[in-house]
Structure to design on (526 residues):
């Protein structure tokens, strides 16, 4: 029997189970129809017409007729409607759990409030933690990577590289914890990782028969960082990438510009620091010692120590484009012809379509009155990071701007040219998936005379088998990187305050939730 009571706030449905229908005992499962009494269960259900729905269900308490059963009486359950010790219907419970997985505590509570289901954030989190994790199946291909948990603390994430689903995560990135997990889950054939020595040792100890694969992206990233170090060490060569200026006397212009910069406050500060750093480093003192004495950062001391002149550490930002730029050649021509009146030059430019103010023309010709060239847009030398990106970018993907400047830079700096050749050889190995020339390449890296590349050669030699697998096999850590991005997203949704068990629960469950709903076929209209 079912009846409904519609009030302003809640829709209440009254129902009762049939009398005389046998029900299974919750202790032993034996059917019984011997009624002891009745009581009313109040169950919350999903909203009906936008209003909260409450089901007042009258159920029986029955005697168990099995003498061996420890229960004397039991309450009957209605399949699909009631669950023991539950005041929500299974449908509403699944909704609460799904919203908790997707939005966590506060976000989940707000979403449920929109759906007219009032629950606190603590209740949403409690229901989320009650959801059992899916059974863990040992993968054939395992991905291992670390991620920043909070502050200076890191965590470890394990991913099934075949199904692309996360397996588990924990705090820390030590080898013992990883080896213990691998021993508890035997059967892993391939392990993808970065160049971490910790994970290498953990895999060797926990799964010695697994083939280790050093990720291609991390290999290229490590090489790119060494290229940037070399570019930083040869910072003085970077201005060679700029196109030649139109000035008739570059040395005079450079000297005049240097004198102008020396008169500024920033120029005096740079010159004073440059002289102090070089005075101390010439005595053989380390950069750290000089930094402590002068109260500077070690990187600042290194920058000044590597510079040949104090002007190198002063970067003049390029002038912003102006509406006057198309008329600079005309201004130079008229100035050379003897017209030095800014007012007349402005009137002439207006006749040619210039819409700017007279003051801009007056400021533009001011350098000409001092014997300097027009203040044209100045190209800025590439930074070490930009130079490294030019060298490590595929030739077919370089812009015309890079293709114009990179040959000039490599022609000026033999070290960067040699580095460029080594990068091209390693890129060819990755493109062809051929590690045959890897030993020879490592020898050339070590004999290059460049400290960053020699250090990289030593690190890759220790891990050469995994490096060769990373070059030749299709396995990589791309799945790990994608899952780590998802971990960071879940952390931000919880304001970074989630404990490791809660974070693990959400990361694993939300991946399976997405997979489950993505696999469902969509209903086509009509």
């Amino acid at each position: 029997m079912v009846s409904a009571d519609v009030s302003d706030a809640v829709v209440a449905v009254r129902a009762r189970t049939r009398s005389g229908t046998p029900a299974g005992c919750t202790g032993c499962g034996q059917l019984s129809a011997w009624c002891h009494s009745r009581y009313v269960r109040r169950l919350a259900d999903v909203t009906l017409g936008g209003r909260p729905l409450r089901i007042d269900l009258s159920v029986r308490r029955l005697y168990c007729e099995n003498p061996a059963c420890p229960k004397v009486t039991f309450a009957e359950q209605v399949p699909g409607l009631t669950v023991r010790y539950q005041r929500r219907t299974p449908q509403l419970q699944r909704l609460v759990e799904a919203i908790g997985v997707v939005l966590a505590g506060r976000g989940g509570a707000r979403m449920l409030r929109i759906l007219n289901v009032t629950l606190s954030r603590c209740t949403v989190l409690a229901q989320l933690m009650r959801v059992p994790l899916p059974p863990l199946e040992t993968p054939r291909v395992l991905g291992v990577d670390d991620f920043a948990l909070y502050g200076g603390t890191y965590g470890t994430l394990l991913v099934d590289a075949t199904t692309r689903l996360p397996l588990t995560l924990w705090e820390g990135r030590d080898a013992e914890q990883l080896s213990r997990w691998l021993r508890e889950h035997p059967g892993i054939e391939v392990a993808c990782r970065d160049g971490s020595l910790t994970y290498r040792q953990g895999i060797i100890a926990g799964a010695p028969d697994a083939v280790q694969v050093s990720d291609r992206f991390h290999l290229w990233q490590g090489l790119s960082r060494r290229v940037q170090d070399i570019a930083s060490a040869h910072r003085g060569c970077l201005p060679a990438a700029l196109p030649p200026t139109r000035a008739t006397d570059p040395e005079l212009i450079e000297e005049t510009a240097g004198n102008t910069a020396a008169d500024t406050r920033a120029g005096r500060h740079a010159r004073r620091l440059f002289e102090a750093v070089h005075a101390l480093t010439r005595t053989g003192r380390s950069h750290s010692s000089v930094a402590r004495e002068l109260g500077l950062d070690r990187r600042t001391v290194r920058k000044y120590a590597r510079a040949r002149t104090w002007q190198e550490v002063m970067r003049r930002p390029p002038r912003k484009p102006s509406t006057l730029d198309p008329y600079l050649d005309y201004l130079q021509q008229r100035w050379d012809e003897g017209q030095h009146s800014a007012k007349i030059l402005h009137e002439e430019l207006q006749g040619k379509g210039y819409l700017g103010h007279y003051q801009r023309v007056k400021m533009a010709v001011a350098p000409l009155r001092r014997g300097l060239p027009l203040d044209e847009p100045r190209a800025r030398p590439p930074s070490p990071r930009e130079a490294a990106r030019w060298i490590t970018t595929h030739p077919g993907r370089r812009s015309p701007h890079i293709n114009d400047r990179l040959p000039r830079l490599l022609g000026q700096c033999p070290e960067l040219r040699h580095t460029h050749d080594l990068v091209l050889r390693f890129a060819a190995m990755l493109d062809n998936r051929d590690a045959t020339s890897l030993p020879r390449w490592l020898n050339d890296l070590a004999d290059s005379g460049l400290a960053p590349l020699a250090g990289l050669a030593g690190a890759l030699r220790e891990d050469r088998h995994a490096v060769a697998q990373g070059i030749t096999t299709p396995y990589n850590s791309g799945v790990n990187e994608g899952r780590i991005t998802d971990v960071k997203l879940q952390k931000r949704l919880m304001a970074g305050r989630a404990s490791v068990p809660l974070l693990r629960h959400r990361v694993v469950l939300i991946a399976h939730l997405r997979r489950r709903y993505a696999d469902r076929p969509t209903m086509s209209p009509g």
About this structure: Residues 247-258 have pLDDT under 50 and may be disordered. Residues 82 and 234 are 74 Å apart (CA to CA).
